[in-house]
Amino acid sequence: MSVADHLVKALGPSLVTVEPDDLQYYSMDIYSSGEAPVAVVLPTNVDELSEGVRVTTSNGGVVVPRGGGISYTGGVVPSANQSVVVDMSRMNRVLDVA
Description:
alpha/beta, four-stranded mixed beta sheet, 3 helices
């Protein structure tokens, strides 16, 4: 089973996209393009984020965090095989301050 398959199984299709058009979109920022990721995780809370990272890394994937995707340095562009982009845009509220 691939990294993408493991992610969809663990998190469900509402939190993981493997659609080719989406993967192409997430392979670039404003100025750079790189490898298309094998999946994009769209967590809404810390538990989903943790599970996505755990599943990715335990199955040989590389995590590429992404905020707004407007990096000018290529920092959000996947550059390795088995990259999984974690789009943080849905995690947009402060729930607790310790």
